[in-house]
Amino acid sequence: MADNKDYYQILGVAKSASADEIKKAYRKLALQFHPDKNKTKEADAKFKEVTKAYEVLSDAQKKQTYDQFGAAAFEQGSPGPGGPFGGGFGQGGQYGPFTYSYSSNGGNADFGGFSDPFDIFEQFFGGASPFGRRQQREVYSLKIDFMEAVKGTQKKVDLGGKIQTIKIPAGVDDGSRVRFGDADVIINVVADKRFKREGYDVISEQGLSFAQAALGAETNIETVEGKVKLKIPQGTQPETVIRLRGKGITHVRGSGKGDHYVRIKIVIPKNLSGKQKAILEEFEAETHKKKSWF
C-alpha cells in the first residue's frame, strides 16, 4: 500500500526548506523519538517515520523524485529508486543525516568518518543502531552542566564498581553517547537559563529599553565564550535577531563552530516618573505633528 503521508509535514518544514533546515528538523525529532530515549510504541513508529522522510528529502535526487511523483516512487516494486536505501545496503546509501558505503566482497567500508554504523547512532542519538548490535555493552548515564558540555570536561564516574576518569569532548549535546572502554556513557545536559541550544547554534535574549532601541546603543552580550560587545543599530525593532558568527558551540567531530543568535526584547517600564511621562507625551505629540506635515 502506498505511503500518502507528506514528508515535509512529518519533519515540520516547508517545501522550500534548505538542506540545513531539513537536517536540523530531523535531528531534533530523531533525538525526541529514538527508541532508547522514548519507550512508547508511538515513539518507535514516529522515529521510523521521520527517518524515512529525512532519507528522501536529504538526498537531492530523491527529493526531486518525491516532489514529482510523491512517496509512491519509493515503494518496493515501483519504477522509482526502490527501497529505503535506493539501491540496497550492499552498495551504500543514507540513514538519517549520515551517508555510508559498504562492500560485501572484502572492500573498504566508509561510514562518514565513523568506524561503523553502530557508532553513528551511539554518538548522535544515544541509542542502539537500527542495524542491530553485535554484543551487549554496559550503559551508564552522566549528568553535566550546559557549559561543561560546551567546553568539554573530565568526570570521575563509577563504572561497574570501579572509579574511572572519563573525558567528555567539547560540543556534546543532551543524549550523546560517549564510548569508554567496554562501556557506553549517555550524557544528560542540564539546561541553562541564559542559553537555548539548537544543534551547534546558541540562542539568547537581550532586553533593551525603548530609548536604546530607538537611538541605538552598545551593550555587552553574554556568549558561551564570554562577554561580547554588540552594537545595536538605531531603530531596532522588537524580536529582531542579530547573528554573532562563530560564537556558538564547537563541533564534536571536525572543525568549525556554530553561531550565536541574539533575539531583541523591548522592555516597557511599568512605573514612570512625572518627568518621564512628560517627555514621552512630548515625543508622541511631536510624532503626530510630523505626520501632519505630509
**Any idea of the CATH class of the largest domain?**
Mainly Alpha
CATH topology of the largest domain: Helix Hairpins
Q: Which regions are unreliable across 5 or more consecutive residues at pLDDT < 50?
A: 76-123, 125-129
Instruction: Give the ordered list of helices and strands.
Output: HHHHEEHEHEEEEEEHEEEEH
Bin the strand percentage: 25-35%
Describe the protein's architecture and organization:
A four-stranded mixed β-sheet has the order 8-9-13-12. Strands 3-7-6 form a three-stranded mixed β-sheet. Residues 76-123 and 125-129 have low confidence and may be disordered. The radius of gyration is 25 Å and the shape is extended. It starts with 6 loop residues before the first helix and ends with a helix. It is α+β, with helices and mostly antiparallel strands and 294 residues long. It is 29% helix and 26% strand. The relative contact order is 0.08. It has three domains: 1-134, Helix Hairpins; 137-191, HSP40/DNAj peptide-binding domain (Sandwich), CATH 2.60.260.20; 196-267, Urease metallochaperone UreE, N-terminal domain (HSP40/DNAj peptide-binding domain, Sandwich), CATH 2.60.260.
